[in-house]
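Field reference: sequence -> structure
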Amino acid sequence: MGVMRTYGQYCPIARGAEIFAERWTPLIVRNLSVGCGSFSEILEGAPGLSRTLLSQRLKQLERLGIVESASKPDGRGHHYELTPSGRDLFKVCVSLGEWGARWLEIAPENLDPFVALWSMCNALRRDRLPDRRVVIQFNFTGRPRPERYWLLIEKGDTEICKTYPGLDEDLFVTAEAEAFVKWHAGQLSWAAAVGNRRIQLHGPSWLVRAFPTWNARSMFAHIKPASASAASSAG
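Structure field:
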């Protein structure tokens, strides 16, 4: 395990950056903050992060007093959560996200629909979900390979499946990855996405109408990108 590199400065920015600017650390803190409590939940929300590296990072964050863990009641694995220090550190994540939403373009390599779907599931408006089980199939286009996922919603709990869960689908969503990501990010309205047939829904009309109202959107959806603000002020 690598030793943490230091700047050798007393400056709080330098000391904070030594911890926060480690690769994957901000995403682990973000995932814990949105309610991922188990190792596998944290991992699912960080595609590309290896189990080994996540294990190292969690141990490091525990040593630093940012994360605390407890054995699960059934003895299988641990439950992780942020300490007061960790919740304070999440405010840095939010500031960074606000800056990113305002100043950085969503580039083609950022258009991973799974991440947007995962984020949406963590921000679903539980009060608006139906009180029966709903199975939704998502087909994402416009990627090197088409991607298909299933979303199970039952009693306010959600689960994303990468293989057919063996249950009849209630709703089918076919979406361009870019349109779905930008809708979740607040950069494309549902009306525009559906009007241009970039997102298409097939299923009972009550479900077609209800689906977009469940998404509480990205926590940064309210932020206008600087490029859009500049374009509107120039216009």
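Note: The mean pLDDT is 91.
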